[in-house]
Amino acid sequence: SSVVISGVGLWTPENSISNEELVTSYNAWAEHFNQQNHAAIEAGELEAKPLSSPEFIEKASGIKNRYAYSKEGVLDIHRMRPLLDIRDDEQVSHQAEMAIAAAKKALSAANKTAADIDMVIVSCAYTQRAYPAIAIEVQMALGINGFGFDMLVACSAATFGLERAVDAVKCGTSKGVLVINPELTSPQVNYTDRDSHFIFGDVATAVVVESGDTCQSAHAFDVLSTKCVTSYSNNIRSNFGYTTRTTDEDPYSADKLFHQNGRKVFKEVCPMAAEHIESHLRSEGIEVADLKRWWLHQANINMNLLISKRLLGRDATLEEAPIVLDEYANTASAGSIIAFAKYHEDLASGDIGVICSFGAGYSIGSLILKKR
Ligand code: CO8
Question: Which of 54, 58, 138, 251 shows the greatest Cβ crowding within 10 Å of its Cβ?
Fold first, then answer.
């Protein structure tokens, strides 16, 4: 029997930050820095911090806005990082809270309850602790029997997690799986780095995977095939980790946060993603022209246009390859799932679409879906 995606949930934080708000605060920080370090800059010992602009951000990335789990602190030029409340061990953790909210929406979209699920995968770019797994905390909060675990695959965490879920249902070890992506990216954003301060937003997505035999959803998709690939690259990197304290380094230094060689990533990942999608479709005997929808990773609008153009020979329309990064920015692994959540109900039975992620690792993951 087939394996289906029967429900998807999207949880969006209440707070948002526009390009204008973000740039105003970054520029005030940069000017303050330059004033404070005036003498060293004049003496050529230190480089002045350059200014950012909303026009550059929108043109270079397509991003106009991002959501923030905690806005407080990000815009404070004497802080430049989110301010989260401290929670004791008995309280629900921040990332579990986001995950639970998205999971409840996915369960309801799939017409399912906790009793229908026996495996919980929390898959994202970072987890706020190593153990107990966020997935096990979510499992307990939702009252799910079975097991849960966390996995990290940066931007491809959602698609790689979905492949694990599809395999588990296919081989009969699980009857229903929740794959949840609580992307709390803001703690790892360097808001003092002009080149990357605008890129990321916070969000949580969740997907229910089950057998076609048990599916009770009006908007389910058969998973025709999945394909994951990785290829090592240092062009997107974060060096923060549990060994950081042993080296006595500054835990806040720029290399401990998200940093990238954006132009190289753009150049290397676009052809990789295009070839990946094409070969995945070909292996299933599907033509590019047969695709009704491309739920692509949301890192940069120009990347998505380039990838679809390579395959289609023209720009994809917004209906074919919807963009959500204008509103959500890059949300690591959740981007393609947000696009799927917002743009799947209009497809007709038999329509084919592809979810595809690409990013740090490098990692690329795709699922070919057919509307039931
Ligand atoms: N304001 C004004 N000017 C700017 C700004 C700014 N904010 N930033 C850069 N500039 C300037 C540059 O200094 C440069 O000036 P010059 O030409 O004089 O050197 C000029 O504008 C052009 O800069 P770039 O060449 O850097 O600009 P690009 O057009 O290449 O755009 C992008 C930069 C948007 C970063 C683009 O290269 C891009 O999107 N690349 C793809 C990156 C990508 O997809 N990365 C994926 C990262 S996400 C991921 O893998 C998941 C990681 C895990 C999650 C992490 C969560 C924190």
Answer: 138
Active site residue 155: yes
CATH architecture of 221-371: 3-Layer(aba) Sandwich (3.40)
Taking alpha carbons only, the member of 319, 361, 325 closest to residue 344 is 319
> Cα(138) to centroid of ligand 1, in Å?
35
**pLDDT per residue as tens digits for the range 128-174:** 999 999 999 999 999 999 999 999 999 999 999 999 999 999 999 99
Q: Express each pLDDT in 57-107 by its tens digit.
A: 999 999 999 999 999 999 999 999 999 999 999 999 999 999 999 999 999
Tens digit of pLDDT for each residue in 240-281? Answer: 999 999 999 888 899 999 999 999 999 999 999 999 999 999
**Does ipTM exceed 0.90?**
yes
Residues with a CB atom less than 6 Å from ligand 1: 52-53, 56-57, 60-61, 125, 154-155, 185, 188-189, 194-195, 198, 200, 236, 258, 260, 262-263, 265-266, 299-300, 303, 330, 332, 359-360
- Ligand 1 centroid to 196 CA: how many Å? 6
Q: Which of 49, 257, 258, 266 to mutate to test the pocket of ligand 1 (most atoms within 8 A of CB)?
A: 266
Report CA(263)–ligand 1 centroid distance (Å).
Answer: 7
Task: Show me where the domains of the chain are located.
Answer: 221-371
Q: How far apart are CA 73 and CA 319, in angstroms?
A: 37
